[in-house]
Design goal:
Threonyl-tRNA Synthetase, Chain A, domain 2; Arc Repressor Mutant, subunit A; ten-stranded mixed beta sheet; four-stranded antiparallel beta sheet; 50% helix; elongated; binds adenosine-5'-triphosphate; S-DNA-T family DNA segregation ATPase FtsK/SpoIIIE
Length: 712
């Protein structure tokens, strides 16, 4: 076979066209006709463009949808005809029910079956009265129609006779106008009649199709292809269909009887999901739906973490939020303040992304926090992020107590006014002292506020900015706080001060933040869980821990951190009180401080630089840092000194004198604490005249024994 060289020249044709564009045709000469290769070039370019348009995604999509619609057209047509037939049938049934007083007859029948003579008689009388009223109404309509038709006929006949006898030219103007109106109406009726009956038929057909529509929840008018946005698409029909298959008897009966759910908020996009509010029918509460959350999630094609049915403003109102598929599995990303920025704690500290995908930044003043969850789920990180945010506000004063051996807050040390960490009693004592100081500070702030012009009710940014007033935001954070509240010596005092702070500190710019692994009623006092304003629950084991952190009744209302999975949902918490919403599902920002990665220290370095820029130093309300770090009290020496010259003193008196001598240290002490301390030094109290006494000589001997031992 021989090859044909001109076919091989096709690429060259494009070069030819480029040159052709710039060719100048001399005047007087005609434009040369396109030669065969040029014609092919133009055709090739045009064809390429058409192909590009045809292949563009929007056109491909439109074509596929159009193709689908065309293929489904016969099915759609049959479906609509079926609706029409069924609609006419439903009208017939309705007409029959109306005409035969079927509802009232059913009442009468029910009364007869129930043996209720009075009800039966009432129903029968109502049927008779109803029938009489209908006939009376029909008579009125017929009478009015006949009278109207007669009057119209007489007027028309008179007008026709008048025209025949006299002719319009001799008639007065007003009569001619009457004839003109008659003619216009006549022409209008003659011309419009074919349209009137056609449009009436169309309207009747549409109404019959509407009447006969498929009323099962989730049904659509025409058959639909699978949606490519099915990962995010949730509409009222889908929700109704999912609710119809929860196995809630009153809801099923309502939907089966043709009832339609009322959407007080129709399904609409809300961040990374869909929100809807539904008024449930009689006999159904939102709790019932919350209890079947897993089934609801399955019916909606979501995981249960992505499906949040909660009780709305009433028990019969369901608030439903459904996340787009997979959106909650990603982390929150970097903390927005990781590399730059300052904070105003009155505006808020960013802590994470809500289920809607928006940054949650709760203000810190006027709030108290309780953070809890199983071990290793991200409590400490959230507490640290809150404190880091506060550290970037140069007016903030921060106190941190860690009731365990954990270096989680070590990098924050330069920015902290008080910091103690460890398992020994001195840390618990320091924490109680801090709580007590905050209570005194609260009183002082109350007085200062009262002296300000206009007696402002609470600390504001403007007042906090005046260093002379000392009304700056003050935050006390206690990690593993259950250790403090369960401490045999300091627990009771800690509870008392903490409750006082939580109840009254709100107005004075004092914020308490508590984190715990163990939010049970024994580890966290009830008064605290009851009064805390912001609760954050990471994965918890049961509804007791859930309600301990988030408030009682939250589990029942569908706000459940029990749905969070250990490890998989690490860093995600259910939070209440941090925004106006009933709850938030927060994916917290993570600022690493582990395994050699330390992004906390650079933030603190920035915070210190901001303080320098703002000409502020790390202040300590209620004392200096030195005072706080003083070595713990020497119990033995204190006891010896308060015994004084007396040879023996009653233990009750010793306890009272110790409390007077150093209230912070000894006020929480009971007789049992005193006995335990004495026993640890080998001293025993004796009974004398029926009361327990302590001998001064025994204490002196214990002191010299201890001194000797320390010299050795
Ligand atoms: N928001 C987050 N994003 C990603 N990982 C996180 C997040 N928060 C915490 N983590 C991971 O979880 C680990 C445990 O975090 P963290 O120490 O804050 O938990 P915890 O609940 O305080 O634990 P524990 O109860 O033992 O003190 C961290 O080392 C980190 O790897």
């Amino acid at each position: 076979m021989t090859r044909r060289p001109e076919r091989e020249m096709v690429p060259m044709v494009f070069d030819g066209e480029m040159i052709d564009d710039e060719t100048v045709v001399p005047q007087g000469q005609s434009v040369p006709r396109l030669t065969f290769p040029r014609w092919r070039a133009v055709a090739g370019v045009a064809g390429g463009r058409v192909r590009a348009v045809v292949r563009c995604p929007a056109v491909v999509h439109a074509r596929s949808v159009a193709g689908y619609r065309v293929r489904q057209a016969p099915r759609d047509a049959v479906r609509l005809v079926w609706f029409l037939v069924r609609g006419v049938g439903r009208w017939g049934a309705k007409g029959w029910r109306w005409g035969s007083h079927a509802d009232l007859r059913a009442d009468a029948r029910a009364a007869r079956l129930a043996g209720d003579v009075q009800a039966r008689r009432t129903a029968q009388e109502t049927i008779r009265a109803d029938a009489r009223a209908r006939w009376a109404k029909a008579g009125t309509v017929v009478r009015r129609t006949v009278v109207g038709a007669a009057v119209t006929t007489v007027v028309l006949v008179l007008l026709a006779l008048g025209e025949m006898v006299a002719g319009r030219e001799v008639m007065p103007g007003w009569l001619r106008a009457v004839y003109a109106v008659r003619d216009a109406i006549g022409h209008g009726v003659a011309g419009g009649w074919p349209w009137v009956w056609r449009s009436t038929v169309c309207a009747l057909v549409c109404a019959a199709v509407w009447e006969g529509r498929d009323r099962t929840p989730g049904a659509s008018w025409i058959t639909r292809p699978d949606r490519d946005d099915d990962g995010s698409w949730v509409d009222e029909r889908m929700i109704s269909k999912a609710l119809a298959h929860l196995g809630i008897a009153p809801l099923n009966a309502f939907l089966r009887g043709g009832g339609e759910l009322v959407y007080t908020v129709p399904a609409r996009r809300d961040g990374d999901g869909t929100h809807a509010r539904i008024r449930l029918p009689l006999g159904v509460t939102a709790d019932m739906v919350c209890d079947r959350r897993r089934v609801l999630a399955a019916n909606l094609g979501r995981s249960s973490l992505e499906t949040w049915p909660t009780t709305g403003e009433e028990d019969g109102v369901l608030d439903l939020w459904v996340a787009d598929k997979g959106t909650l599995s990603g982390g929150a990303g970097d903390w927005p303040l990781l590399h730059e920025g300052t904070v105003d704690v009155f505006d808020g500290v960013p802590v994470g992304l809500s289920q809607r995908g928006v940054v949650v930044a709760p203000p810190l003043p006027e709030s108290n926090w309780l953070i809890g969850g199983r071990p290793g789920q991200g409590k400490t990180n959230l507490l640290r992020v809150l404190l880091l945010g506060a550290a970037l506000d140069p007016t903030c004063e921060l106190w941190v107590f860690v009731m365990g051996e954990s270096p989680d807050f070590e990098p924050l040390r330069p920015r902290l006014s008080r910091y103690r960490m460890g398992l020994d009693d001195t840390v618990a004592a320091g924490a109680v002292r801090a709580l007590e100081d905050l209570c005194s500070e609260m009183e002082r702030r109350g007085r200062i506020l009262g002296e300000q012009p206009g007696r402002p009710p609470k600390v504001s940014r403007r007042l906090a900015d005046k260093p002379a007033l000392g009304l700056h935001p003050l935050i006390l954070a206690v990690d593993e706080c259950h250790e403090l509240f369960q401490h045999p010596t300091y627990g009771r005092k800690a509870e008392e001060f903490a409750v006082r702070l939580i109840k009254r500190g709100r107005k004075y710019g004092i914020t308490l933040m508590l984190a715990t692994q163990s939010p049970t009623k024994d580890s966290i006092p009830k008064e605290i869980t009851r009064n805390i304003s912001c609760g954050a629950a990471f994965a918890v084991a049961d509804h007791i821990a859930n309600d301990g952190l988030l408030g009682s009744g939250k589990y029942r209302a569908g706000i459940r951190a029990t749905e969070l999975r250990m490890r998989t949902d690490r860093g995600t918490c259910v939070a209440v009180g941090i925004t106006d919403a009933t709850f938030e599902l927060v994916r917290t920002f993570y600022v690493p401080f582990e395994d050699g990665a330390d992004l906390v220290s650079p933030v603190i370095a920035r915070a210190m630089a901001h303080m320098t820029d703002a000409k502020r130093t790390v202040v300590t309300t209620g004392g200096t840092r030195k005072e706080i770090d003083t070595t713990p009290a020497d119990h033995l020496k204190d006891i010896y000194s308060i015994i004084g010259e007396e040879p023996r003193v009653r233990t009750q008196v010793i306890l009272a004198r110790l409390a007077a001598h150093n209230p912070r240290e000894y006020e929480p002490w009971s007789l049992r604490d005193l006995r335990a301390t004495l026993r640890s030094y080998g001293i025993r109290a004796y009974k004398s005249d029926g009361t327990m006494v302590l001998r001064a000589a025994d204490v002196a001997e214990a002191i010299s024994r201890r001194d000797l031992a320390s010299d050795d």
